[in-house]
Design goal:
By secondary structure, the chain is an alpha/beta fold. The protein is built from 13 helices and 17 strands.
């Protein structure tokens, strides 16, 4: 009888990718993967530590796994394990704690865990080279994430990621193309190239990010290529000209902002000003006039005044984002900002989030309306009801189409007709 394993991934797409890698390792070693809610022999929790909420959620999931099967082996890895192993040692439900680098030996460690001291593995040396794995299948049957970069050396004052993920390192074009080829052969049509700090890809690679995109675009069967979150620093005339020559590149740029106030950006140790950011957006729209431009905003960073918050509100309206992800600032132990003076009251944060949410919806609806009656290509991802299918345009507008035939993983020419429930209803041409 096969041993069973179950996975739970918290946090970002990088963690989700790493979990897919672990899933394939276990499957290749004879394990059967079962849902996390079921009884399993082994539970793997890939933790997040970006905020203290991530830590709390990780602890909840660990305890849930033990309740699912009191006799199971509970293995905890990921960023929380990397940054705070001593805190996890206090949780009696855990059998093994693995640093990110130790994931490569996870099967061997599990097979021999009874012989390990205190049943703990604290292998937390920082990775200096990109650890290359291939994921041939992905839980999503249309879009696949391919990790091509890891690590960060920006050291923003609010962020724990450089301490969790280590120095920057990049994957070779050849290795990335090999993984994309396998995914294409398994039916995937859209690839998202992702990394912890994707803009630094070239610093540890002999090639530029645009060269990587061009190489991936040559893989037969891949109809779309997206880039995950980018720093404004990577946006140049040459970069955008190169991307504009690649037919499968999707004009959606998730360009990190975090604040629209220069004084807050300085305290955050972000490496640009609002003027630089605006210039980068103007460049994008020069080459991709109808690009979707999305971003992240942190609300209530230490010392954020009413004036600074107003500057952020004015700036995001000036840019005209197509979508904004809004987060309250959360102090993260071990980062400089956690001990900054003038921490913002939670009630103030909540009120500011409400104000930004209203602006965000207004900007998103404006972008949707601008696109109505246009002809677009949509890749449908899944059914979301009877004869109802969800997909995305190239500039990342969510689209609903009604069809008596399955549209899953179909690439269709459509016309965008009307806004319905934060999506656009489209008709196939």
């Amino acid at each position: 009888m096969k041993k069973t394993v179950s996975f739970y991934s918290l946090g970002c797409k990088i963690n989700a990718y790493d979990t897919e890698v672990l899933r394939e390792i276990f499957e290749n070693n004879g394990y059967e993967v079962v849902p996390f809610s079921e009884k399993a022999d082994v539970y793997i929790i890939n933790t997040c530590t970006v905020t203290h909420f991530g830590d709390k959620k990780s602890r909840q999931i660990i305890r849930r796994a033990r309740r699912n099967n009191p006799d199971a082996l509970i293995v905890v890895t990921g960023c929380y394990a990397q940054v705070s192993p001593e805190k996890l040692e206090e949780i009696e439900e855990i059998d093994l704690i693995l640093g990110v680098k130790a994931q490569a030996n996870i099967i061997e460690l599990i097979n021999n865990y009874q012989n390990l001291p205190r049943k703990m593995v604290l292998n937390f040396n920082r990775n200096e080279e990109f650890i290359n794995y291939n994921v041939d299948n992905n839980q999503d049957h249309t879009r696949a994430y391919v990790k091509v970069q890891d690590g960060c050396q920006q050291f923003c004052t609010y962020c724990i990621v450089p301490y969790a993920r280590g120095p920057i390192r990049s994957r070779t074009i050849k290795d990335a193309v090999n993984e994309v080829t396998a995914l294409a052969q398994n039916g995937y049509k859209e690839i998202v190239l992702t990394g912890v700090h994707l803009a630094s890809y070239e610093k540890k690679s002999k090639h530029s990010l645009e060269e990587l995109v061009e190489a991936v675009s040559q893989v037969k069967g891949i109809e779309r290529i997206r880039l995950s979150s980018l720093e404004p620093t990577i946006i140049t005339e040459e970069f955008l000209k190169a991307l504009a020559q690649i037919p499968s590149f999707c004009p959606h740029f998730h360009l990190s902002l975090q604040s629209g106030s220069n004084s807050v950006l300085k305290r955050m140790n972000r490496h640009y000003s609002t003027k630089i950011y605006k210039n980068k957006v103007d460049l994008i729209r020069k080459h991709f006039p109808n690009a979707g431009i999305t971003t992240d905003i942190i609300v209530g960073f230490p010392g954020e005044t009413d004036k600074e918050f107003e500057e952020t509100k004015e700036f995001i309206q000036k840019i005209g984002f197509s979508k904004i992800h809004i987060f309250p600032y959360s102090p993260r132990e071990g980062t400089p900002a956690a001990i900054f003076n003038n921490q913002v009251d939670s009630q103030v944060k909540n009120q500011r989030i409400k104000e930004l949410n209203d602006i965000e919806k207004e900007l998103r609806m404006k972008f949707y309306k601008k696109n109505l009656e246009s002809k677009e290509k949509v890749l449908y991802e899944r059914g979301v009801g009877d004869n109802k299918y969800l997909g995305y345009t190239r500039n990342y507008i969510p689209v609903i189409t009604y069809s008596n035939e399955s549209l899953t993983n179909q690439h269709k020419d459509v016309k965008l007709k009307k806004i319905q429930d934060d999506r656009i209803v489209a008709e196939i041409l």
